[in-house]
Write a structure and sequence with these properties.
The protein has about 550 residues and is mainly α. It is about 85% helix and about 0% strand. The chain has 18 helices and no strands. Helix 2 packs across helix 7. Residues about 1-5 have low confidence and may be disordered.
Length: about 550
Amino acid sequence: MGNKSKNKDYLVQGTILVAASFIARIIGMVYRIPLKNILGTEGIGYYSTANELYNIILMVSSFSIPLAVSRMVSERLHAGEQKNAYRVFKCAMRFAIAVGAAMSIVTFLFAGVITKYAMKAENASYALRVLAPAIFLFAITGVFRGFFQGRSTMVPTAASQVIEQVVNAIVSLAAAFVFVGYGTKLGEKKGNDSLGAAYGAAGGTLGTVISIAVALIFLIAVYMAYRGRMNRQLRRDVTTEQESNREIYKILIWTLVPIVLSTVIYNIGTVLDQGVFNAILAGQGYTEKQYVTIWGVYSGEFRVLMNVPLSIASCLAPSVVPSLAAVMSDNDTKEASIKVRDTIRYTMILTIPCAVGFLALSSPIMQLIFSDSTELASGIMQTGSLLIVLLGLSTLTTGILQGLGRMKEPMIHSAIALVLHLILLAILMTVFKLNIYGVLYSNIFFGLIMCILNAISIKKYLRYRQELVRTFIIPLVSSGIMGLAAYGVYNLCHLAVGNAISCLAAILVAIVVYGVVLIKLRGITERELYAIPKGAILVGVLKKCRLL
């Protein structure tokens, strides 16, 4: 395989992961509609609280394992050390089993304490206890995913994510329905009308546990099918210096610690936000049901939608990290700069129009997806639309720095941004009494600080500056024209038909308008279109339409 092909392979693999993640996120978003109807806004609040705590625990225990494993495996394979790469896999598996089991047990035993005192939402403890076994399963799954990613294939990870979401949707809805009924009856006996919502949330999280178990079984099957080929590669490996288990564990831990700390600091803001938000509103006279319900709209609706375009950055980061690690092991800063430029531009081309679309069609989309026509829902979506771009860029640039071997910088940047963010959040909620909008504005500030600090570090280590016109300006101009077209089409259609048809028509027009304007302004070239999966077919269609 030629160098040019190899240089573009990480984008192809990243595109595969992005496509699979989009499918998985859309499935996750769609099943949230009936789930919300089953649980109610209060139940979704408990469900979101448990999931946010679960995500933080994953970050501490195993969320960063795929990234660390992929980086270590990629470095050794690039040096032709098949045996050492496999030893990394075995050591990482033992590490994941031990840490995952310990964190699962701790989470199950202390779920009530965490939800009661940290989150002021004790009824979320039922759902968090159900999620505890998923921590153990996710740790093992992460090692398999990191192993395949380090070998420059995202297909097993992509397929397992789609399977995971399909199973999650089916089991979550069925279990939530059953558990809500049981909890409601139990609540009537005990005089607690929140038990139905709490038990329903627990049923909803059961889908996460079962789905990860199914995804793990799939990855084990893929690994077993791949084992014969891997054994042949191991037999051909003539590496004389084999790393000891002790040395690998040491490197693994030293690779994981800064990634874990930066990931936790970067993502713990959501949990801290909810803790601060709940505590301040409780002090302002709101009941638990009221502030959990408001948070349910923000977390259970807006963030679910926002996570769909954000999956672009979260998928490109795993694909670019092993690729950057390989070229940096050769001190090839020129090739590293090309990879950084392409991934950032690719992310902006996709996230900027999503943000503008959220802004232009906030209320119609909320009504279409969640049947929520309240001013609160549309206001949150409009205000938070900028987060898609800022969090997407900050997530990607954090991954880029980790791929460059700069593990400490993202951790320091996250800590600085988090402290400033929390100070601003407290001021906005106590002095200006902005309620949930204080959370949104402070998160926008967090994302902005992260982007600035990460950009400074990337420039410092690569002596590199991102191209501006084709990366930011052309996508922004194209998105602005797209947003006006979508807004006009929606309002025109809504004179004759309902919200659903009007909204879908506006989205379809938006996609076409954005693509046409982007191509006409040369925001993306024919050569670049060929580099994406099925790009030749797309180029052919565009030429027939005389757009190229």
